[in-house]
UniProtKB/TrEMBL annotation, chains A, B:
Pfam family, one: KYNU_C
Transmembrane segments: none
GO biological process, one term: NAD+ biosynthetic process
Gene3D superfamilies linked: Aspartate Aminotransferase, domain 1, Type I PLP-dependent aspartate aminotransferase-like (Major domain)
Full protein name: Kynureninase
Amino acid sequence: MTTEQDCLALDAADPLAAQRVQFALPDGVIYLDGNSLGARPKASLQRAQQVIAAEWGDDLIRSWNTAGWYDLPRRLGNLLAPIVGAAADEVVVTDTTSVNLFKALAAAIKMQADHPGRAGRRVIITERDNFPSDIYMAEGLLGWLERGYQLKLLESWSDLPAALSGEAGQQVAVVMLTHVNYRTGRMFDMTATTAQIHAAGALAIWDLAHSAGAVPVALNAANADFAVGCTYKYLNGGPGSPAFIWVPQRHHAQFAQPLTGWWTHRQPFAMQPAYAPVAGIGRALCGTQPVVSLALVECGLEIFGQVAMAALRAKSLALSDLFIALLEEHCAGHPLELITPRAHAERGSQVSVMHPHGYAVMQALIARGVIGDYREPQVMRFGFTPLYTSYQDVWRAVMVLKDILDRSDYQVDAKRDAVT
Amino acid sequence: MTTEQDCLALDAADPLAAQRVQFALPDGVIYLDGNSLGARPKASLQRAQQVIAAEWGDDLIRSWNTAGWYDLPRRLGNLLAPIVGAAADEVVVTDTTSVNLFKALAAAIKMQADHPGRAGRRVIITERDNFPSDIYMAEGLLGWLERGYQLKLLESWSDLPAALSGEAGQQVAVVMLTHVNYRTGRMFDMTATTAQIHAAGALAIWDLAHSAGAVPVALNAANADFAVGCTYKYLNGGPGSPAFIWVPQRHHAQFAQPLTGWWTHRQPFAMQPAYAPVAGIGRALCGTQPVVSLALVECGLEIFGQVAMAALRAKSLALSDLFIALLEEHCAGHPLELITPRAHAERGSQVSVMHPHGYAVMQALIARGVIGDYREPQVMRFGFTPLYTSYQDVWRAVMVLKDILDRSDYQVDAKRDAVT
């Protein structure tokens, strides 16, 4: 049996333990929802004050140049690049994940339509279990194209090889997957899956919302085609902070997307009515960005600049292994079903557990200061963020969960909890 | 001749003079660029602290509900609505002006395509002198539609009636105009122009980037079809703060746009793969918004809640009239060309003046603390923001300009300044 002392010993030996002090975390809270909204870097308050009082208030319009506001999407993109295995000038931080996915999917479809041997392909593949907004955005885009594109939803991730093989595979233009599933925490092998997709003549778009800052990602090594992701989860950029989009160097010349706002123009301040796209990653921008929210992304990225992803990954797996082990040791008699893979290679940085009264149990946990979250159906999600989660946090969270379950100390709402 | 004493007397009698204290303005600066980036409401710093430290830092993920983050686009839209003559639940503050224009134009095109008598129309009209990003966005959208839509650029605003008449007019699906021109400050008569557009069977989209908070706007009274606009200029929302989009009640049921992110879903947290749009203005949203930048928009809107647009308009015109009169009295010998209309009904809240060395003269003004801005070709723009611009500011700005021109105290850059 694992004891709390064991957990304390793990914390004492943890090379990342010193990072926690960089985050402002409220007393009395065990925060296991950094996969939804990352905790606040303490530096963010002073940075906001600088942007608001000095750059906006004092320097006013001049700050677009003097404070580097124009360059923020590119500069932050370059800070983010190593976290996802991208090269310099391949990433911009801009707009929302949904909008960036629209850009990437449109660009991938156009690349295929312009490809002599692939112009007739009309199928876009994703998982039915993908994050719904990705599915909605794809439907939204395809509905406006008039050449009969169709979205095919895989019932399971394991159906992908079959969907890419034979006659059917020859119809596939693009496969759009989320690297780590938002609900289950299951992770794809990006390199192998991209290779399968390429072997079928399709392009691979990866959504890194639950990957960037959570697990090692090597976009260029995996030869991926496009990627988008989020800065407000594991990257701790702040609520709703702008998202990112990655376009590899090899696709820059062909990259074209429909949201051709002035920030994508070669000479935005020449104010010419004729459109001429800038060379490079700037084509993935669109319009003027929310500077205060954007600037705060840097506070989170600066912390990632001080740690190695290998160390983060090692601790992430140790935390989620510990959580699973403690669940089995202490909550074995309860109807909990682990839906996150046990295999490290298939696991992101969260653990998801189904319970017939998952919604009610999560509400009870939150009321007692253990903050995870709930996703339909019946899924309690617990995110592990090695920068500020301790082994003792994991111990305490499981002890609170055990107590709630042992005493059935939760309020079942018949409308929310369908007992299966 | 107008004297500085006359200006001081105007300030002493100005009912809006008391508003200036709500803004943080640096010493030694006369800020005439609120048409590009509005000045900072003092309340913004404390509001940012609340959002960052308390809502993000302490309450973490719970703030999406407890702090009303989810409702911000709608709540701010309702605060903004009276400023542009919109009704409740017709405006959301979200995304960028360019992205919102894309939504509005796509929706308008679809409405026309679905209209039995108008489905064959394939022409979208705008002005060659429209803000370039609007033109680029329209080109970007039309390039992805496959039914041969074309963008027609009017050489002059006065060409619109001809373009809407006869056979040509029967091909026009949508007219997309900026209400107040960014370069000249010329303002359209929204009611009359919308009526002309409707008479031709077309729909009218208005970009209010230089109108919202600057001039009276009555979208519903004008029977406009869609509008978008900016919160970081006259509304003082902060650098790059999220934009807005207006969809009138009468178009809600038919409104459909391609950026169908999860915030447009009827039940975003049901996490269903099937898309079902929410009823109402929520369809104009897309994805998760940058909360810190978004929240600061409220500080600017709160000030507008305390003043009457009629008073703002009266002072705006008095300021720009004064500026024009002082230019004529003091700078008459210099090659300045006024390109903003003298007629009040055609003037926004800026005055634009061409000078052969406009770029160099503006740099000299800025170096001496008079901040306007420059737009190609040769245009010096001076924005008048009645909430924080005084009559004495106008006097001093013209005196500095006069001194620069009289002494030719500017550095001509041959590459920038083409002498005509």
